[in-house]
Amino acid sequence: MAITHARPLGRIPAAALHTIPEDLDLATGPEHRLRRRRPRVFAHRGASGLFPEHSRAAYMRAIAEGADGLEIDLHLSRDGEAICLHDPTVNRTSNGHGAVADMTLSQLRALDVVSWKTPRLPAHYGSTSQQLMTLQDTLELLVDAGRDIGLAVEFKHPSPYGNRLEERALQVLLSFGWDPETSTIPAGDQGQYRVYVSFMSFYPGSLRYLAETVSTEALCALFTTVTESHVTKRIHHLRFSAALRPVVAAVMRGTVKDSESMVWNRQAGLAGPSVEYSLEHKAEIKAWVARGTRLRVWTVDSVSDAQALVELGVQELTTNYPARILRTVAA
């Protein structure tokens, strides 16, 4: 293999990348496909294509559909609870308004976090007041799943509480018997199953902080191709946004490079690129697969994308529709 040292993606010569597929082409032929294990399927914010994201209903449905794991996002509430929500505010996914960081758990529990998408939930998923989930609530579901299952925890930054977010998550995990060395939690009535925990972030600083406690294999660097629309979304609420645009774009692209570097330098055992990035950078994806890096690609909702990623050797897919993607990768 021509790549003998782990280097940031931007510094790897194109020629080096193109020398990789010689043996890799053989490894992705029909015989190899028969031997290859199917990709693991993670439910993105639960079965969020069917039920409100991060709701108890979405998590329960994903487990029932056979998802190999749940993917969750965490913010810290004002009173220090790890809350499962994607956005920094409750505006989009509840009947309330304001920042998660400014609200207590009791205030968050009082919100309706499901009617924006599913006004009437089936009764077996719990009442409306039971739908907002904390990390503790999620772990209680997973340890009772009756099988091995994964939990992919994404830390949402920037957080006004800094790394207190990670500290609180680790505290909760430890209270469930989490083993930092194996990053597993015993589950089942007799501890016969395991919850496999991994940690993700778009912010390399979060992963570096976690690396003091968490094994490299359980760290996942998230990244995507930075587009003009991504930059616009980031700056739309800022004064003088036009003047700030070049600076913000440079910072965002620099963060992506830092995340790529963590993968190349084996500081993160999992690479978490988007679907768009993966299909645009097939040589890099093949290079990571060839050297044993696990790939967890998001958000894979179409059958054609799932099939293309399986052909590239991607080992984990994150999706809003776990049943659909499970059927696809099992075919």
Automatic annotation (TrEMBL):
SUPFAM superfamilies: PLC-like phosphodiesterases
Matches recorded under Gene3D superfamilies: Phosphatidylinositol (PI) phosphodiesterase
Domain GP-PDE positions: 39-329
Pfam families attached to this UniProt entry: GDPD
Family annotation (InterPro entries): GP_PDE_dom, PLC-like_Pdiesterase_TIM-brl
PANTHER family, sorted: GLYCEROPHOSPHODIESTER PHOSPHODIESTERASE, CYTOPLASMIC, GLYCEROPHOSPHORYL DIESTER PHOSPHODIESTERASE
Official protein name in the record: Glycerophosphodiester phosphodiesterase family protein
